[in-house]
Amino acid sequence: MANQRFWIACLALVALSIYLFVSAPPPLAEKTAAGATIPVERMFEILNTENAVVRAMWTKEVVGAGKQVGLKFDERWREADVEAGPLPALFLRETAKSLEKNPTPLSLFLGSDYPVNSANSFNGLQLEKFQVVKQTLKPQFFFMPDLQMRVAMFADLAVVDGCIQCHNKHEKSPKHDWKLNDVMGATTWMYPSGSVPMDEVLQTLTALHQAFKEAYEAYLKKVQKFANPPAIGEQWPAEGYFLPTSEVFMGEIARRTAPQTMAALGILAGKPQSESAMNKEGGSLAAAR
Hints:
Blueprint lengths: L1 H18 L10 H6 L1 E3 H29 L19 H13 L6 E5 L12 H13 L3 E5 L4 E9 L3 H9 L13 E9 L3 E3 H26 L7 E3 L8 E3 L1 H25 L4 H6 L4 H4 L1
Parallel strand pairs: 7-8
Antiparallel strand pairs: 1-6, 2-5, 3-4, 4-5
Helix pairs in contact: 1-7, 1-8, 3-7, 3-8, 4-7, 7-8
């Protein structure tokens, strides 16, 4: 609980510094949060919103800007003789691997019906639900009896030309005509419970942030072995041959995600009623966004 209170305090401090006197998010009522239980779908929405922010930041401000100053990113980045970092999908995979080591029972992966890696191919019920995601662009929430897991799928769109070109040219890609805004796959979350106590929500958020941190630090560790490593400090690739420290990277994540996450947690903690009641009063994260 100490780590959870510290995490919430950090988020509150960042959100307050940005939105003071303007649009400060509602405070998290700790005494109501302690006994509140929310549908797992709400937790999935919060987690996916945070992940989407980090994914966009990595894609545009590390990979995209980094390539402009000489940094390289490659699917073989883990190999000793390859001086490169993880591509966006591989950064998500690193995050997922870190989550697997955490006792929190949360799973994350990026699947598709046309994956470069066949291990990431949807099948059965997952494939059926993914077709709905492709057609509607709306998230799908469902239960998988064989795994005894609750599942959430969120559309993963082709928003960067570099990702499209990489998939279209990849020798193992089963599809070579990807276009901007195509649904390339789905960010997929799994959790065993249909409802989640607020303290468990906080534990899961803490685990996700720790996974982001470990994924980024794995890259920094690799970078330090480069023949010509970039300077690591407070500057980002947009400013030159630089990378931010782990603390700067995580601080930027907190700055960007704090307002919406605090708002969602405040709404959910303050309204531990039924799901229909939360929807009626605008409690869904989609509305909060």
